Amino acid sequence: MASRFTPNPRFEDELKRSVAHRVRMREAAERGADASRAAAPVRTGHYRDSIRVEPTPTGARVVSDDPAANVIEWGSVNNIPFGPLRKGAETSGAHYVDTGPG
Fold first, then answer.
1. Of 58, 62, 87, 100, which is most buried, counting CB atoms within 10 Å of its CB?
2. Model pTM?
3. What is the Cβ-side half-sphere exposure of residue 4, based on CA atoms within 13 angstroms?
4. What are the C-alpha distances in Å from 72 to residues 53, 59, 86, 89?
């Protein structure tokens, strides 16, 4: 007798609330933060040292509160983009997709 698959409409919400999911997301964020720090340009070390992992309701995220973080990540008319946070995300297994301006 063939079995029938019944999708769980709450699967994604249940997964996000699971402890195992949050642990795996935190581990991936820590790998991403380590890779971001390794890829960060170092003049004073302030930017590199500002990269950290913050918890979220469903896992974690990698952030920097350095005032120059935007210019370091994306560049400017006078600075090349280094992209350490994007490189860290890719290293941790995440996939970055640029959706363009705002």
1. 62
2. 0.79
3. 1
4. 18, 25, 11, 15
The sign of the dihedral angle between the CA atoms of 99, 102, 79, 38 is: negative
pLDDT tens digits for range 8-20? 899 888 888 888 8
Dist. CA 41–CA 83, nearest whole Å: 10
Nearest to 63 by CA among 83, 85, 30: 85
